[in-house]
Design goal:
19 helices; Coproporphyrinogen-III oxidase; 3-stranded antiparallel beta sheet; 9-stranded mixed beta sheet; Arc Repressor Mutant, subunit A; S-adenosyl-L-methionine; 4Fe-4S; globular
Length: 468
């Protein structure tokens, strides 16, 4: 397989703390370009349905994202769109409205197009009962036609406190073949500080059962920068997680933004690790994952070389979407549920973040799209550059020039000039119009991508998290 030896070689960067500090600025995560901050309310449901109709001519596969906003308990670090409740009956009217949304959207979709990817996120999707999960799958299948192809990527986010072995067996029978487990940290003291007490045995039992059942890929989410964390304590967590052998691992940087996310106000800022400690945690984690044989996909994602994510990166077919990195490129993404975002043809479209607004639109018989964006030619060009850079860790601007019929050297003159300092500092190498991130550049890939972003001057840096 091409570049396999390179992909499996050590990714641990030469550690220069002063350099990392200099580049550790705030910036987008580029799950889209332009980012969601550019979406506007002049975008209408009709704009979205027209994009759905246009997308049918391309015959691309479909990706469906379903947002389940409910959680029984709020984790203090959480920045997701969620509703805290112990009332499981609240899910019933929500599922009914999801079905209305599916019907309204599917009218404009050629449903013979294969649903190659399905992702349930939240919130806590496993807040639903087994019967409700089965009902939701039946509705999705009736409206869009789900796939049994072994190459499909059907994933669900799982809270180990809300699932057991029977849940996993049920999910497998529904067609899910990939699981993502929220762990964050196995240290009991840290768990208490973030209101997420989750015994290791829960996670270990589920992972063992998932391996036994033959789920195609298993992801574990960890967060560094949480209260009461330290380098040795987080290394103890990572040691235990590596022993559980997940195919993928996400190591997210906690962004403490209490003015934007109310639950974070319950975190004692005095207990957060300082900048030095956070960098020490990150450095040791990278070294441990490198020794354990994981490939650094980019940013905060790691995978075993045989996982589909690593294979897609080697093959140049990796994609970034609102759920992060994806092995299924070129799918049109339809987002369903409160706050969900769609990426279809040349548009982005988002549903309301408030459940009442989402419900009111659907009860009125219309799609709940409240804002979005249709990309212009420059947006499309820069989206391609940023996405390929984020996914491949390299970009051939000459090839971009040929694809879009532009003179790449002059078109990206300002961007290339902005990257000269990063090149001098060893974040990337340049051979003509081919740019490639170095190991340390992979950690700072968001900074490299920002050089191609022409929208940043219109936005406040405070709206974004720091890179490291």
């Amino acid at each position: 397989m091409p570049n396999r030896a390179h992909a499996m070689s050590s990714f641990a960067p030469v550690w220069d703390e002063a350099l990392l500090r200099r580049y550790d600025k705030s910036g987008p995560r580029y799950t889209s370009y332009p980012t969601a901050l550019a979406f506007h309310e002049a975008f209408t449901p009709a704009d979205f349905t027209q994009a759905l109709a246009r997308s049918n001519t391309g015959r691309r596969g479909l990706s469906l994202y379903v947002h389940i906003p409910f959680c029984e308990k709020i984790c203090f670090y959480c920045a997701c769109n969620k509703i805290a409740t112990k009332n499981r009956q609240l899910a019933e009217p929500y599922l009914s409205r999801l079905d209305r949304e599916m019907v309204l959207a599917a009218r404009h979709v050629d449903t013979s197009r294969p649903v190659e990817q399905l992702h349930w996120g939240g919130g806590t999707p496993t807040f639903l009962t087994l019967a409700q999960m089965g009902d939701l799958i039946d509705r999705l299948d009736a409206r869009f036609g789900l796939s049994s192809d072994p190459g499909r990527d059907y994933a669900i986010e799982i809270d180990p406190r809300e699932a057991d072995v029977f849940t996993l067996r049920h999910l497998q029978s529904l067609g899910f073949n990939r699981l993502s487990l929220g762990v964050q940290d196995l240290d009991r003291d840290v768990q208490r500080a973030i209101n997420r007490v989750q015994p290791k045995q829960l996670t270990e039992t589920l992972m063992d059962e998932a391996h036994r059942l033959g789920f195609g890929s298993l992801n574990v989410d960890l967060i560094y920068g949480l209260p009461r964390q330290s380098e040795p304590r987080f290394a103890a967590t990572l040691t235990q997680v590596i022993e559980l052998a997940p195919a993928r691992l996400s190591l997210f940087n906690y962004a403490h933004l209490p003015t934007r996310f109310a639950p974070q106000r319950r975190i004692d800022e005095a207990e957060l690790p300082g900048a030095d400690e956070k960098l020490a945690i990150l450095r040791r984690s990278i070294e441990m994952l490198d020794r354990a044989g994981y490939v650094h996909i980019g940013m905060d994602h790691f995978a075993r070389p045989e996982d589909s994510l690593a294979i897609a990166q080697r093959n140049g077919t990796l994609q970034r979407n609102f759920q992060g990195y994806s092995s299924h490129a070129q799918c049109d993404l339809i987002g369903l549920g409160v706050s969900a975002i769609s990426r279809v043809d040349d548009v982005y479209a988002q549903n309301p973040v408030r459940l009442d607004d989402y419900a009111a639109a659907l009860d009125d018989g219309r799609l709940a799209i409240c804002k979005g964006l249709r990309l212009n030619d420059d947006d499309l060009i820069r989206r391609e550059v940023i996405e390929r850079l984020m996914c491949d860790m390299r970009i051939d601007l000459a090839a971009i020039g040929e694809r879009f019929a532009i003179n790449a050297a002059s078109y990206f003159e300002t961007s290339l000039a902005a990257l000269e300092e990063a090149e001098r500092d060893g974040l990337l190498t340049r051979d003509g119009l081919v740019l490639e991130a170095t190991p340390v550049g992979r950690l700072l890939i968001r900074h490299l991508a920002m050089a191609f972003d022409t929208t940043l001057t219109q936005q406040s840096p405070a709206r974004y998290s720091r890179i490291l």
